[in-house]
């Protein structure tokens, strides 16, 4: 097997392993926190895995040009979905994190004022 084919398989397997690990982390976070961002990221990763599966077909089966073009067109659908959902999920997660940080700062400030002569003992 030529070196470029070995490298192609290494990249495919590494991408698959990464996607499965990310999916497990996202799924667990969604089950624990039930935040929409983790749900979006989970669905995004599933659609990315579908795309990876479709894009791996030419590596295990020889396709003529028409079938290959049809496969690429079909694979573009989950690819686009993964991109949109991934960006939306990431944006949602960052927004939620920003709100948590702001609330934490507000609470620290309120507690700090109490301890400095506010309602403290």
Structure notes:
This protein is an all-alpha fold and 121 residues long. The chain has one domain (3-115). The chain is built from 3 helices and no strands. The chain has helices at residues 3-33, 36-60, 65-115. α2 (36-60) packs antiparallel against α3. It is elongated and about 75 Å long. The termini are far apart. The model has no long low-confidence stretch (mean pLDDT 93).
Structure summary:
With 121 residues, this protein is mostly helical.
SSE inventory with pairings:
Elements lengths: L2 H31 L2 H25 L4 H51 L6
Helix pairs in contact: 1-2, 2-3
Structural class: mainly alpha
Give the overall average pLDDT.
93
The helix content is over 70%
**Into how many domains do the coordinates divide?**
1
Give the C-alpha Rg: 23 Å
Low-confidence stretches: none
Features:
121 residues; mainly alpha; 88% helix
């Amino acid at each position: 097997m030529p070196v470029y084919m070995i490298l192609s398989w290494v990249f495919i397997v590494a991408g698959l392993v990464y996607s499965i690990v990310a999916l497990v982390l996202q799924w667990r976070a969604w089950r624990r926190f039930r935040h929409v961002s983790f749900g979006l990221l989970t669905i995004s990763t599933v659609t990315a895995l579908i795309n990876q599966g479709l894009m791996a077909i030419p590596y295990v089966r020889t396709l003529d040009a028409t079938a290959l073009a049809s496969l690429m067109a079909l694979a573009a659908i989950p690819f686009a979905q993964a991109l949109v959902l991934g960006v939306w999920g990431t944006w949602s997660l960052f927004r939620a994190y920003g709100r948590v940080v702001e609330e934490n700062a507000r609470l620290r400030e309120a507690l700090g004022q109490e301890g400095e002569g506010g309602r403290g003992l």
